[in-house]
Amino acid sequence: MKMFRYLPLCLAVSAACMAPAQAQSLVELYESARASDSTYQSAKAQYDANLAKADQGRAQLLPTANLTAGANRNFYDQTVPRIDRDFTGLSTSLGASQPLYRPANLATYQQAMRSVEIARAQLLQAEQDLVIRVSQSYFDVLGAQDTLEFVRAQKLAVAEQLASAKRNFEVGTATITDTREAQARYDLVIAQEIAADNDLKVKKLALDILVSKTNAQPAPLALPVVLPPVMPADIDVWTQQAEADHPGVQVARVNLDIARLETEKAKAGHKPTLDLTASYGVNRYPSGSTTSAVAYRSNVATVGLSLNVPLFAGFSVQNRIRETLSLEDKAAADLEAARRLVVQGTRANFFGVTSFQGQVKAYEAAESSSQLALDANKLGYQVGVRINIDVLNSQSQLFQTKRDLASARYNVLVGGLKLKQANGTLRPEDLQAVNALLAQR
Q: Residue 297: what are its φ and ψ, rounded to 5°?
């Protein structure tokens, strides 16, 4: 009987001691997922594409140059005076233009630079999402492993109780009811073991696909488990960081800047443009031309300014300005909605983590109490003041408490990461703190 009391602890210790030989840490599996996860790689490719697109906006402020060349054969026939001549013309021209004053082009360039900030924030969101997905899958596997181990330990305990009930029935100190109750509980635990084993296989498959490994083995938590507190403990600090640093808020804020620049572009439709132009051309006639039978060539160089003043465009500019002003209002409303959503999410996750921490303390106390209750019921059964179902119920309560305690611990760790994601401060480096709580090799 005393051996059963320490059976779950022995299973946990043996798992912690055996797992590190083949186990991978959370950081190792995250790095593997980062290198192969299709969702993250897609976001990274989109980020690179956005950077290249942003550079295109700079082109509208830079000079342009064109080189053209041509060759033609001319047939000239004149009656008075009589001229009948065939000749070849060759031409080459180099032209360049430099924008001097184009406010619309400047606004486009500034929008392109803002889009780089959006691309960076979106990549950060994808990175944070990958951290959470790997962490959640990692601890899902550990939780499923714990559940299977506890169910198997419960099966051994129920089998022991079933054997005891049969022996007592054979010697006449117990009724057949005790045996049947133990047998029914044993059959139930067998079904639970099958379900727990299948759940573990499914969760391990999900982790393997995510990290692109076969039979990934997460390292368990080191014993004794010491969970870190939420720091800072002030919820207002978390919400203030969320409003300032969350990628979603940053994207909404930059979108408002881009909308304002779009209005500036629309207003530029009323403004003149000024360009500096230059060209150099060479025309050659190896066999003469219409005016001369002697070969010659001409060189022409020009430098000048090109001014364009818009006068009337059918009220399109005015209507475009009205459109962009409305889009500014929309972007401002989206920014406020993003702020409120982020603050709400941060508060909800903060309360969630603190709740899980409270549950851990409560389950730790419940585990001790359940163990004492089980010992008392076993002793009462031996002396005849308790029946077999009391012992079986105490066993179920103890193992359920152990499963809930393990789950609450994992929820605290994943919840801490989700809290940082909610306020926008989550970084891959935050996995190091969680990694330090795992059993080391």
A: -145, 160
Residue type, 296: Y
- Please give the Cα distance from 157 to 377 (Å, whole number): 14
Total domains in the fold of the chain: 1
By the 8 A CB rule, do 235 and 350 touch?
yes
Looking at residue 112, which CATH number applies to its domain? 1.20.1600.10
Given its phi and psi angles, is residue 172 left (phi above 0), alpha (psi -120 to 50 degrees) or beta? left
Threshold 0.90, pTM exceeds:
no
- CA 207 from centre of chain: 16
Contact between 290 and 85 (Cβ < 8 Å)? yes
Cis peptide before 81 (omega within 30 of 0): yes
Q: The domain containing residue 35 runs over which residues?
A: 2-62+103-270+316-435
Please state the φ and ψ torsions of residue 73, each to the nearest 5 degrees.
-110, 125
10 band by pLDDT with thresholds 50, 70 and 90? very low
Q: What is the mean pLDDT of residues 15-21?
A: 44
Residue type at 384? G
**DSSP string spanning 260-313?**
HHHHHHHHGGGS-EEEEEEEEEEEEETT--SS-SS-EEEEEEEEEEEEE-----
Whether residue 112 contacts residue 54, with contact meaning beta carbons closer than 8 Å, is answered with: yes
Residue 360 in contact with residue 228, Cβ under 8 Å? no
In-domain check, residue 297: no
Residue 406 lies in a domain: yes
Residue 190's CB is within 10 A of a number of other CB atoms, namely: 14
Domain-located, residue 89: no
B/e letters for 397-427, b = 16+ CB within 10 Å, e = fewer, are bbbebbbbbbbbbbbbbbbbbbbbbbbbbbe
Which residue in 275, 264, 299 sits closest to 285, CA to CA?
A: 299
Classify residue 184 as exposed, middle or buried by CB count within 10 Å of its CB (0-12, 13-18, 19+): middle
Q: For residue range 350-391, list pLDDT tens digits in order.
A: 999 999 999 999 999 999 999 999 889 888 878 877 777 888
Residue 305 included in any domain: no
Report whether 95 contacts 66 (CB < 8 A).
yes
